[in-house]
């Protein structure tokens, strides 16, 4: 390409006004600065990092764009435009490139709002939503002072170094059992630290940890971790003491420099009250290091149960402490694994040398102790505390206290809390249900981007919670129960009223044939209908037909569309392609 072929847009603004061949001497570089097209270009030949770099053929590549431009001798004397011109050309290009990302950013800013932008556009209603969850332990529990004081009266013995009596707490769901027990436990541990009394509370949810092996393994590993932390702290103190004693043996004569645990000898201590030499400190360090190496965590499976119990026993008895083991949903543990765990825990105090263990059990079932061994029952139920259901007024107080923390100011209309309390009072005084209602109502209002939670949000939340409960219950039904329920739905969809057991059984058999399932007897199907009635999915009553005997008549008591959707989401029931002929055949027969 010649100089005459150079595109006009490759020139700077100044170059376009004056052609290169008319440039005066000021526009031409000096002989020392001149770079010939035939010269080899090296690092020293470059004018600057942003300048164009000439190659052997006179073509330069701009670093920022990679675009090739041509620098040629325009006046025939072998000179090229000066470095200022080259810089001007590069700068012009750089300015254009720098603006490009800015334009892209501007286009992104002006783009339509994204999915979460719309959701974040409204003002928040919640200040702290976690306050409305069951896992939250409040600083004050309204209307549970009597039960809390009773627990504190029993457990105060732990702060005196005594073994507290075992406690069983009863009450229906949502009556504040777990929250009150955790509140007392937190106070107990806080007070024990204030008075430097070794007292610990370990919480286990037996609905999750529901076997003897798992309970003992979880406890063993908890105390192993605590012992390791205890030993590591002691080792740090002793190593520091040994270092000081080497440089100043007189520190061992200080009556304040003693092994803090030697006043009450246990598995970690030597008989000496004070260290009389650095060697004595070193021996203690070696002993603690050996103890640290001996700890072996319990795997969640694979060990014999007696080995797991032995490991737990040694871990809890490693040094002096009073331990309160809180077993929430204790009836689930007994139902799944029997009373062996409770028997071992309740009788281990007779074998422990340094520690003492107390059990605090929490149950929704007031009758679960009837299935316990008499020896376990007598030792476990030394103290019993009953939590009665809340009434509407008490629920209103609980919700008001939580709402002050959970919501921003003026986020609730006046009728929200009374309505939530009234709905929950109908559910046997369940505070958990009341809190769920209030939280769900707030979430619905927030999704609708309304400024306040109103009565309509509470009613919508009531329907949503009830539907969620139905969906969860139906989803977890056994396949045979799902088929029976599907038969009831098909009959109701075709106008049947007061459906009897025989009609359900006829449709049930045809559905089983369609999905290739085993057909149960009519008596067994009647039992499944009774179970559905107990779960509140159907409403079944026994009706006498005189000399023709008795039968059950039923109607669906849950939303038909939502229930059918859950049933057809099952892979087996979803295989039914055309059930209408079966129902029609039933009416024609």
From TrEMBL:
Residues 38-59, 85-104, 251-267 have a biased composition (Acidic residues). One of its GO terms (biological process) is cell division. Residues 1-14 have a biased composition (Basic and acidic residues). Transmembrane segments: none annotated. Residues 62-71 have a biased composition (Polar residues). Residues 163-391 form the AAA+ ATPase domain. The keyword Cell division applies. Residues 485-567 form the Cdc6 C-terminal domain. SUPFAM superfamilies: P-loop containing nucleoside triphosphate hydrolases, Winged helix' DNA-binding domain. ATP binds at residues 175-179, 390, 402. SMART domains: AAA (SM00382), Cdc6_C (SM01074). InterPro entries: AAA+_ATPase, AAA_16, Cdc6_C, Cdc6_lid, ORC1/CDC6, Orc1/Cdc6_arc, P-loop_NTPase, WH-like_DNA-bd_sf. Keywords: ATP-binding, Cell cycle, Cell division, DNA replication, Nucleotide-binding. Residues 1-121, 246-273 are annotated as: Disordered. One of its GO terms (molecular function) is ATP binding. Involved in regulation of DNA replication. Belongs to the CDC6/cdc18 family. This is ORC1-type DNA replication protein.
């Amino acid at each position: 390409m010649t100089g005459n072929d150079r595109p006009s847009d490759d020139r700077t603004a100044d170059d376009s006004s004056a052609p290169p061949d008319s440039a005066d001497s000021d526009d031409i570089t000096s002989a020392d600065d001149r770079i010939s097209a035939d010269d080899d270009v090296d690092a020293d030949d470059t004018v600057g990092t942003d300048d164009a770099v000439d190659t052997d053929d006179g073509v330069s590549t701009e670093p920022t764009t990679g675009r090739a431009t041509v620098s040629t001798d325009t006046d025939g004397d072998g000179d090229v435009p000066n470095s200022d011109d080259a810089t001007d050309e590069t700068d012009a290009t750089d300015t254009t490139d720098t603006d490009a990302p800015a334009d892209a950013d501007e286009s992104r800013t002006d783009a339509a709002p994204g999915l979460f932008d719309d959701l974040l556009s409204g003002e928040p209603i919640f200040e702290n939503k976690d306050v409305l969850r069951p896992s939250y332990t409040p600083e004050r529990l309204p209307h549970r002072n009597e039960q809390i004081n009773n627990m504190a009266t029993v457990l105060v013995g732990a702060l005196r170094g005594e073994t507290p009596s075992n406690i069983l707490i009863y009450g229906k769901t949502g009556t504040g059992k777990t929250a009150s027990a955790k509140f007392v436990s937190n106070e107990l541990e806080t007070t024990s630290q204030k008075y430097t009394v070794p007292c610990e509370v370990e919480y286990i949810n037996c609905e999750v940890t529901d076997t003897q092996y798992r309970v003992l393994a979880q406890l063993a590993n908890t105390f192993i971790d605590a012992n390791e932390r205890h030993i590591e702290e002691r080792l740090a103190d002793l190593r520091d003491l040994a270092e000081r004693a080497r440089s100043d043996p007189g520190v061992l004569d200080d009556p304040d420099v003693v092994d803090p645990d030697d006043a009450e000898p246990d598995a970690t201590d030597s008989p000496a009250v004070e260290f009389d030499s650095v060697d004595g400190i070193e021996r203690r360090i070696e002993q603690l290091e050996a103890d640290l190496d001996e700890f072996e965590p319990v795997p969640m499976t694979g060990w014999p149960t007696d080995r797991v119990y032995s490991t737990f026993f040694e871990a809890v008895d490693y040094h002096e402490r009073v331990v309160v083991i809180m077993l929430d949903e204790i009836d689930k543990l007994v139902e799944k694994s029997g009373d062996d765990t409770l028997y071992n825990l309740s009788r281990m105090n007779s074998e422990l040398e340094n520690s003492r263990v107390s059990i605090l059990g929490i149950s929704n079932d007031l009758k679960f102790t009837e299935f316990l061994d008499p020896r376990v029952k007598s030792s476990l139920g030394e103290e019993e505390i009953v939590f009665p259901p809340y009434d509407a007024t008490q629920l209103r107080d609980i919700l008001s206290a939580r709402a002050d923390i959970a919501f921003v100011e003026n986020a609730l209309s006046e009728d929200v809390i009374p309505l939530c309390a009234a709905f929950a009072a109908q559910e046997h005084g369940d505070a958990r249900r009341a809190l769920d209602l209030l939280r769900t109502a707030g979430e619905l209002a927030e999704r609708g981007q309304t400024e306040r939670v109103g009565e309509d949000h509470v009613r919508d939340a009531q329907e949503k919670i009830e539907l969620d409960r139905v969906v969860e219950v139906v989803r977890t039904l056994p396949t045979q129960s799902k088929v029976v329920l599907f038969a009831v739905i098909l009959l109701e969809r075709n106008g049947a009223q007061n459906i009897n057991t025989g009609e359900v059984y006829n449709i049930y058999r045809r559905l089983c044939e369609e999905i290739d399932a085993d057909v149960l007897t009519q008596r067994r199907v009647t039992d499944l209908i009774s179970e559905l009635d107990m779960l509140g999915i159907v409403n079944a009553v026994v009706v006498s037909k005189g000399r023709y005997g008795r039968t059950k008549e039923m109607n669906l008591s849950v939303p038909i569309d939502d229930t059918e959707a859950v049933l057809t989401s099952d892979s087996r029931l979803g295989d039914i392609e055309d059930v209408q002929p079966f129902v029609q055949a039933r009416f024609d027969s």
